[in-house]
Amino acid sequence: MDLPIEIKKYIENELNVIEKNKLYDKAKTISKNYRTNEGKGKKLLKNYDEAIAYAISRMPATFGAVYNSLKSSLEIYNPTIKTIADIGAGTGSATIAVNELLNVENIECFEREETMQNVGRMIFEHYDNLSKKVKWNKIDICNDEIKEKYDLVISSYMLNEISDEKKENIIEKMWKTTGKILLIVEPGTMQGYKNIINAKTKLIELGGYIIAPCKSNQCKLAENDWCNFSCRVQRTKVHRELKDGDAPYEDEKYMYIAVSKEKIDNNDKKRILRHPMIHSGFVKLKVCDDEKIEEITITKKDKEKFKIARKSKSGDLI
Fold this sequence. Notes:
By secondary structure, the protein is α/β, with parallel strands linked by helices. Helices cover 38% and strands 22% of the residues. It contains eleven helices and twelve strands. The strands form two sheets. Strands 1, 2, 3, 4, 5, 6, 7 and 8 form an eight-stranded mixed sheet that branches. Strands 9, 10, 11 and 12 form a four-stranded antiparallel sheet that branches. Helix 8 crosses helix 9 (190-205). The longest helix has 16 residues, at 20-35.
């Protein structure tokens, strides 16, 4: 999973104009805040340097999480989508993921921080004529209304920043502006999972139909358990330096919910919840379906399923 090469080059070569020590400190703080709820309800990014540090340290992971979430959702339900609203757009990670997967005509990025908008605009100028499709809007979803409707509405890593008392109202606002699909992506932490489950409950109450990843309206996991999924993100040289890592990649854990305005024909496959346990003659999988969560074993005797199971990962359908 990787950002488009044009964006990687631009971020690494053009935006890397700040002293490394400053970037390092800001990137560490930003990464911590976006993965936990420590930034909940706070203004996380205040100046240009911080927006640059965010672009380098968090864009690859956010892009990968949204790309995987949207791809998995479209495999189940894929209506015609021409208009997009990216709410809490940041520097545009979700918009880039959408542009990689869909042929869209109009994307509106709603972002309250002008510094994030400015960096996002610069990035889009160097990628696939995306700036011609995108309109940026300075809107704080906590306080402002969005009057138009869009085929696909995306919120990525935003609820984690919002105070608990405002989350339900924001979910209602996003649902109101959704024409076909609402996709919410959050960190793969227990708090991120709780955000997703609470959003799921509210959206069902508002008349929504779950597309993915859940196979039932009521989660069957134990009270102190949670699920998440993972995508492998390639690191640039600067990215490795900022993350104190030698590995050329990192694994981003995330959770999501995709909800439709219309009832869909959800297939009878099971969702894999944990990384498969692969043995020489069999594969063990923890899966969920409409009725329960269970552990299943697929042996070599079922050649086709065994081949699929060995190559599967958490989040896949089987």
